[in-house]
């Protein structure tokens, strides 16, 4: 991964050799390079009635999912996108959506159970 640093402004101090090395190390870190290919990219959006034309999408170029979401008082709205380089060998947005809904349903049950347990413990005190 390449980066370019601008020359310091006249009011700025030049960077030291150790600062320059830290910058080099950061931009040459393989984890940073991998972060540009995450298979799931998410973005929270400001609540509104309609969820259209968000301009959000997948980050990885070959096989990835993108989700934008709005959390409201009684629901969560999702926009899901899948991207694949080779047709038939990539993403399955339908399966991803079903898995996401099942996981959120399980999470809801877990939270409801925790709320009941906390209420029961409070009533015992």
Automatic annotation (TrEMBL):
SUPFAM superfamilies: CoA-dependent acyltransferases. Coiled coil: none annotated. InterPro entries: CAT-like_dom_sf, Cho/carn_acyl_trans. Residues 17-100 form the Choline/carnitine acyltransferase domain. It comes from the Eukaryota. This is Choline/carnitine acyltransferase domain-containing protein. It comes from Coemansia brasiliensis.
